[in-house]
Design brief:
0% strand
């Protein structure tokens, strides 16, 4: 792997800043696309009448395809041109959004969601790489990334609110149509404002590597998510093992192919390899805990989706300012200590939330959520900056795609491991709380999820129903407490690793020197996508526990 020596570049002007505004659109919409669908699930369920399996595929296929194609599309952008791939993805994303909005069957909607995943996979790596090409000056790039990260975090919180507002006045397909005008604007302005960049020495596209990366990511993410949802069974376990074997074959292919998709020499630089690990651990905690807090606000505190989305705006305000704050702090001290501080801050937020009770004040939840999310945004912004700082500019697309793939795996692992901890505590407590004489089916539903217990409690008379619901909320909160303590332990270990592995490491001499690079954008995008994915999983669990045509609270859905 060769490194490009840094040479001064002219500062960005009005054209580049306008181009940044255009580039805010695609990643914002890609990360929003899971969360907006969650609020539409009860409405499309009433109209399309999907089976339970089809409903899960409607929720999951977008993320599966997106994760599976990130590495392929990052490599493809390096070869054919990042602007060309971005605009092609915008066209596909806009068309697929229209197809999803007017779907007339569950099968049609699943197919449209898969196309959206393909489009999303082309947009994410291209955007990261193009931001690097637009802003050569380190200080300007830092400001651009701060604006981007704030917009990403703010947008993902506003997305569910916008979705709720649309669903109050229009049909469920309107949540997809909001993508189309943004994609049209990108197609019009992109050719005028965005530079083209590709790697002239990339060689031919390696189709076998593409197939191997797709199969590996799909199998691993599917296996982990299914085990998080339904426990360890034969099919998900087999999928995970198969994914690991295919991943090993993919790595072997990269070592032996004449024109590999990934430059494995990147992993010889500890800045890149450790940053991928830090990224994965941060998303492990974010997504694994977001599942619990989504359900806590709605099922324990009794909020509707719209109210919960509005309250979630407050932690976002704190998170939005942490990326530029971390960048400024890293200019004054070793970034290893700043990253460790972020992990320690996150651990403090999780420990705070371990004292959460069903009757805790709302401010208690919001403060803890703000603290842990702020710490992890510090980690991811600096970690990704370091990772891309050591990557050759001509391989920025594939390097960014690999970082984003790490976030997908980290989020899936968080849901599986932390979710399993919380579920085990919940089931253990509910075994002792179920009333005698409850039918087997109802007992199983109450034992599996809080939403199931709420549905069963609604069928019981008087105090018996109230007692079951109170016990279920207490059991869920106990599970949440253990899950966040597990996340806190991982964060403390990660802080120690950050200091031990990154101390004294600098990127000076690499293109862009020590300034913030476009990879820090992955922090905002990853956090947003991870939170949206967690919300969708929680939504799927709740929707599965109530009759078709009802919202997660059990009331008629329009």
């Amino acid at each position: 792997m060769s490194f490009t020596t840094y040479t001064p570049q002219p500062p960005a002007g009005r054209r580049e800043w306008t181009a940044l505004g255009v580039l805010l659109l695609p990643c914002l919409l890609v990360s929003m696309d899971v969360s907006v669908l969650y609020f539409a699930v009860p409405f499309l369920t009433a109209e399309l009448e999907p089976s339970s399996v089809q409903q899960l595929w409607i929720l999951d296929v977008y993320g599966f395809v997106l994760a599976g194609l990130l590495i392929t599309m990052g490599s493809l952008g390096d070869r054919i041109g990042r602007r060309k791939l971005l605009l092609s993805g915008a066209l596909l994303f806009g068309l697929a959004s229209g197809l999803a909005a007017y779907a007339r069957s569950a099968e049609m909607l699943i197919a449209a969601r898969a196309l959206l995943g393909i489009g999303g996979a082309t947009l994410m790596p291209s955007t990261l790489a193009l931001i690097r090409n637009l802003f050569h000056d380190a200080k300007q790039r830092g400001k651009a990334v701060a604006i981007w990260s704030a917009a990403m975090m703010g947008g993902i919180a506003v997305g569910p609110v916008l979705s709720g507002a649309l669903l109050e006045h229009f049909w469920w397909g309107s949540v997809f149509l909001i993508n189309t005008p943004a994609m049209v604007l990108l197609l019009v302005c992109g050719p005028l404002l965005l530079p083209e960049f590709k790697n002239p020495a990339a060689g031919r596209f390696d189709l076998p590597s593409s197939v191997l990366s797709l199969l590996a990511m799909l199998s691993m993410v599917y296996g982990i998510k299914e085990m998080a949802r339904n426990g360890v069974t034969v099919l998900p376990a087999a999928a995970l093992v198969a994914g690991l074997l295919v991943a090993a074959a993919f790595v072997h292919r990269q070592r032996t192919a004449r024109h590999p998709m990934l430059d494995l020499e990147l992993f010889r630089h500890r800045g890149y390899s450790v940053s991928v690990l830090m990224n994965l651990l941060a998303m492990f905690a974010i997504v694994g805990c977001a599942v619990f807090f989504t359900q806590y606000l709605q099922s324990v505190r009794g909020m509707g989706p719209m109210e919960a989305a509005l309250w979630n705006l407050l932690p976002t305000l704190a998170v939005g300012g942490m990326a530029p704050a971390a960048t400024a702090l890293a200019q004054r001290m070793d970034r290893a200590y700043v990253i460790a501080m972020g992990f320690v801050l996150a651990a403090g937020g999780f420990i705070w939330l371990s004292w959460l009770e069903p009757g805790s004040a709302l401010w208690f939840v919001l403060v803890g959520s703000s603290v842990y999310a702020s710490g992890l945004v510090m980690v991811m912004s600096l970690g990704n900056e370091l990772a891309i700082g050591v990557a050759p500019p001509e391989r920025a697309g594939s390097a960014s795609a690999l970082l984003e793939s790490g976030t997908e795996l980290g989020g899936a692992l968080g849901m599986a491991i932390l979710g399993s901890i919380g579920s085990a505590i919940y089931r253990g407590h509910m075994d002792d709380a179920l009333p005698a004489g409850l039918p087997a089916g109802a007992a199983d539903a109450a034992r599996e999820t809080l939403a199931g217990a709420a549905a069963v409690a609604g069928e019981l008379p008087g105090r018996a129903g109230e007692a079951l619901l109170t016990a279920a909320r207490a059991a869920f909160t106990d599970g949440l407490q253990m899950a966040v303590l597990g996340a806190a332990g991982v964060m403390v270990c990660a802080a120690v690793l950050a200091v031990a592995l990154l101390r004294g490491l600098h990127t000076k001499g690499v293109e862009g020197e020590t300034g913030t690079t476009g990879a820090a954008v992955a922090a905002g995008a990853a956090v947003a996508a991870g939170a949206a994915d967690a919300a969708a999983v929680a939504g799927g669990q709740q929707a599965a526990a109530v009759p078709a045509g009802t919202d997660p609270a059990g009331t008629p859905a329009g």
